[in-house]
Amino acid sequence: MNWSRRDFLKTTAAAVPGLLAWNLPASVSPRPLKFGVCADVHQDIMHDGEARLRRFIDMAKQDQLEFILQLGDFCRPYERNRPFLAIWEEFARPRYHTLGNHDNDGGFKWPQVMEFWKMPQRYYSFDQDGWHFVVLDGNEIKPAKRAAGYPRYIGAEQQAWLRADLQKSGAPTLIFSHQSLEDPEGVENGAEIRSLLEQANQTAGWRKVGACFSGHHHIDYAVQLGGIHYVQVNSMSYQWLGEKFPHVRYGAEADKSHPSMKYTAPYKEALFATFALAAEGIRITGRRSEYEGPSPWELGYPEVKGTARDKARMVPWISDRQLKCQTRPG
Predict the structure, then answer these.
(1) Domain coordinates of the chain in residue numbers?
(2) Are 100 and 71 in contact (CB under 8 A)?
(3) How far apart are CA 15 and CA 309, in angstroms?
(4) Residue 261 CB: number of other CB atoms within 10 A?
(5) pLDDT per residue over 118-166, tens digit each?
(6) Is the pTM of this model over 0.85?
(7) At 81, is the secondary structure helix, strand, or coil?
(8) pLDDT of residue 325
(9) Dist. CA 177–CA 72, nearest whole Å
(10) Which of 1-15, 183-197, 265-279 has the lowest mean pLDDT?
(11) Domain 5-323: which CATH class?
């Protein structure tokens, strides 16, 4: 698409006063780039997953985005999900997948999921217009003393690949994973991976890895650690409340076909984000909605402060954000 430096400066200045810049080295000159991101559609929980994905794909086509990327918990490889996947594949430009912990529920193996999605590798990287993008698999099993629940680990082999991949690339880099790298309930060895990324920046002599993006936690949240931004992209569909807070929102028929949906607080509108990258800055444009029916708090869900899933972060929107990525570590 013909999206120029002038377009970036004009739209960014209109959205937020004062441009927040990457401050890239003079030798690095990526082109402006726009792409779309969605997370945690949960087609197998939501009765209207196809309609939600349709809104994202229609936006991506209308805005002529360069590519789209989903952050996991997308759909299981059931034959009934072929129409859902076909909507995703209507986008004619590149499409990228991230494996989520629920995508192999129902007894499936990861190769089955990947074959269904046409996903060649569990973790990988790609380049576009002078930018480098890395997609990680946070679903590996910790060798010993792992936490209860779903596996959420990045093992030695994948770490070695990541280290080598970052060494080979001289481009400004964004990292994507399903589970977050900074949340205590994200990747178990998140601190180890963050250290690897910070070391890559120190070796490069500039802030080559600028930001990491994840889904999984269904919250709207961002923090900066070690000079790198960590942003959690909210679910396209809902907040998970659990069996203590059931509420049927779409009627008996929908509840019968999708029995887990009553344990969620769905958003009326699908949430997703567009990313605008340029040498002058990075801009994230989110979407806002409201809860379908009572909010978690109206159902008695605890408003715990200072935790990942507190009221300030469990919100029915994805925030607009400007991320400044400095040149040098420190």
Answers:
(1) 5-323
(2) yes
(3) 28
(4) 22
(5) 999 999 999 999 999 999 999 999 998 888 899 999 999 999 999 999 9
(6) yes
(7) helix
(8) 67
(9) 8
(10) 1-15
(11) alpha beta
